[in-house]
Amino acid sequence: MIDSLAFEDVAVNFTWEEWLLLDSSQKKLHRDMMLESIRNLASVWYKSLVSPQHMESSKTQD
Asked: What is residue 42's predicted lDDT score, i.e. its pLDDT?
């Protein structure tokens, strides 16, 4: 069974002091990874909304 995930489960948070120590490529990598995580979670969330509705409409068409 797959456990539920929230954004907080995959987010990497830096303190301001830690953030200042990162160079620009590290900051870009962090941003890119966070955007990918958000997109993946949004996709899973969207599919969870659409799937039950799709299943119901498929049943009524049979």
From this structure: 87
